[in-house]
From TrEMBL:
Designated name of the protein: DegT/DnrJ/EryC1/StrS family aminotransferase
Keyword Transferase among UniProt keywords: yes
Pfam family, one: DegT_DnrJ_EryC1
Any one Gene Ontology BP term: polysaccharide biosynthetic process
GO function terms (MF aspect): pyridoxal phosphate binding; transaminase activity
InterPro entries to which the protein is assigned, alphabetical: DegT/StrS_aminotransferase, PyrdxlP-dep_Trfase, PyrdxlP-dep_Trfase_major
Tree of life domain: Bacteria
Keyword entries, A-Z: Aminotransferase, Pyridoxal phosphate, Transferase
Length: 299
């Protein structure tokens, strides 16, 4: 049997829109002689925090590190026990699990009912855990009731926002400003994608922001004082500049993704394909349009 494939995502035309501006960033950074940190990184962190309406943004090397650093920081601050059990939806990308393991913690997978973790699943579980990492999978924000459940039970939630840049919840709160801390990936295929690896943490908690910044930068507070076990995971200035070029178009790109998703709902008619409930369309950055198919997918 032969199959014809529609390419998953053609990055070339998307990135061609920024080629001229990207070359200008490259030239400026090349000429500046400053290749770690600096104005481009600070500028993007400030702009992205403002965009997410969060108080702080800390650039990292990628999304996996962003989530790992959040969890390591909470342990360093004494907000999570060293052997904390972290509830995590079984349906996610492997990075969510790896971040918990790399932080020395124990992932406790929980099955979801319709792709994403819901309060009704949490209410039913009898497993014990210390905190939850939720995932805005496919761009769909985790429902407000999950956060309300955690709040009522005095449990912290960290969000893997790798796929939900720009989504807004029912109360008008942006992705990156909902959980105690959020971890973004700017992997090239993301809604806001760099042209290499890049990531960021957003939070409104000052002591957590400070610890994340420290751990991401060799555990160092000042030049010669490294007093926590750190890593080297800093946002590259070139990627920060490329992301600055792309951020102004994120909302209109997300609108276009939503238009396309709506048209799939109207026009996709195939008895072997089941669409998610149209509720899936709300509070969603529409990173991916998932469908259920009758048989396994063919590679
Ligand atoms: C849900 C999810 N979490 C985490 C990551 C990790 O991001 P990165 O590849 O930037 O490390 C990704 C993307 O790759 C992702 O889709």
């Amino acid at each position: 049997m032969t199959h014809s494939y529609i390419p998953y995502l053609d990055l070339k035309p998307l990135n061609d829109r920024f080629k001229k501006q990207d070359l200008a960033v490259f030239e400026q950074i090349h000429d500046s002689g400053r290749f770690i940190g600096g104005d481009w990184v600070k500028g993007f962190e400030d702009r992205f925090a403002e965009y997410c309406e969060a108080s702080y943004c800390i650039g990292t090397g990628n999304g996996l590190d962003a989530l790992t650093i959040i969890l390591k920081s909470e342990v360093a601050l004494g907000n999570l026990p060293k052997d904390a059990k972290i509830l995590v939806p079984a349906h996610t990308y492997i990075a969510t699990f790896l971040s918990i393991i790399h932080a020395g913690l124990k992932p406790i997978p929980i099955d979801v009912e319709e792709l994403i973790l819901t309060a009704s699943v949490l209410e039913k579980t009898t497993i014990s855990y210390d905190a939850i990492v939720v995932v805005d999978i496919y761009g769909k924000l985790v429902e407000d009731e999950v956060y309300a459940f955690a709040k009522a039970n005095n449990i912290n939630i960290y969000c893997d926002t790798a796929q939900s840049h720009g989504a807004t919840n029912n109360s008008g709160i942006k992705s990156g400003n909902i959980a105690r801390a959020s971890a973004f990936s700017f992997y090239p295929t993301k809604n806001l994608g760099a042209i290499g690896d890049a990531g960021a943490i957003t939070t409104n908690v000052l002591e957590l922001a400070n610890m994340c910044r420290k751990i991401a930068n060799y555990g160092r507070e000042s030049r010669f004082l490294n007093d926590v076990l750190g890593v080297n995971s800093r946002l590259d200035p070139l990627q920060a500049g490329f992301l600055m070029n792309r951020l102004p178009l994120l909302d209109s790109d997300n609108d276009r993704r939503n238009e396309i998703a709506n048209s799939y709902y109207k026009n996709l008619k195939n008895e072997k394909v089941r669409l998610l409930d149209t509720d899936f369309l709300s509070n969603n950055a529409m990173h991916v349009f998932p469908v259920y198919v009758e048989n396994r997918r063919v590679f």
